[in-house]
Amino acid sequence: MRRLAAALTAALALGVGLTACGESDPVAGTSTAETREITHAMGTTKVPAGPKRVVVLDTDKIDTALSLGVTPVGAATAGQAKSWPTYFGEEKLAGIKEVGVLTEPDLEAITALKPDLILGSKFRQEKFYDELAAIAPTVFTEKVGITWKENFLLDGKALGKEQQARELLTAYETRAKEFGAKLGNAAERKISIVRFMPTEIRVYGPDSFSGIVIGDTGLGRPERQQLTGKEDRRMDRVSPERIGEVDGDVIFVTAYGEKAAAEQAKVTGGALWKDLSAVKAGKAHVVSDEIWMTGIGVGAANKIIDDLAKYLTA
């Protein structure tokens, strides 16, 4: 009887031990993580319901992630602008690892970060899609700039933050509309957007990111920057000799990188620039390229309205 009792006690103890192990340390592969299907520019992809290790490969993606409270583990940088959007503050950028540039993502660096979601753009990285998708679930938006609101909502959905993304976008659009209404005569004020590149000067039209933000406020644009009749109404180029074409009631000026900043200094120091009516009136303002040009997200859009409020209501 004593031997039987001891055997039963041992069996009971073993059973309790196995049960405890089963609860705290399940056998690998028996747990099924929740996923969702996302339809995007490259097809349909199953992504984690709540991704924790996100890599972003375009500037709008880092704006989107940070706006939605997600700090990426890795991010690509934008060519000449070798930094991430500082308008979010250095603390939010701390710990993010660089994974190449927009057009040449570093696949080894991405793999080393063990991401559970990669966000990119067909426009920028289409040729890398299969390799990226082999690393982690990968979601691509189609275009850049002109579809920034749709991109924001799609990326928000992939991040498991769809409702928050909709709320942030609605709040931005409401703010833009209310800002324009407070100006009173918004449509009559012609806003010129000029960007200096390393090898050219650009004006930005109504289908560019910053042009869309200006349009959301109801502010007007110079006729030259409406790009009427052009297939691509995002931007156009002007030569230094025809810089008079960039005039407006107010001019906002950016430069993409150090070489472009040197070209900007050269042109804006010349007689043709100084002869522009907006310059003579003291209404030509240098603003951040990473906000007006490369941000391409709701965070940058709100910062553009901050600039408009600063310079148009002073």
UniProtKB/TrEMBL annotation:
CDD domains found in the cross-reference section: FhuD
Sorted UniProt keywords: Signal, Transport
Domain Fe/B12 periplasmic-binding stretches: 53-314
Gene3D superfamilies: Nitrogenase molybdenum iron protein domain
Protein localization: Cell envelope
Signal peptide: 1-22
Main location: other
InterPro entries: ABC_transptr_periplasmic_BD, Bact_iron-sidero_bind
Domain of life: Bacteria
Pfam families recorded: Peripla_BP_2
Family note: Belongs to the bacterial solute-binding protein 8 family.
PANTHER family according to UniProt: IRON III DICITRATE-BINDING PERIPLASMIC PROTEIN, SIDEROPHORE-BINDING LIPOPROTEIN YFIY-RELATED
Name recorded for this polypeptide: Iron-siderophore ABC transporter substrate-binding protein
Organism (species): Micromonospora thermarum
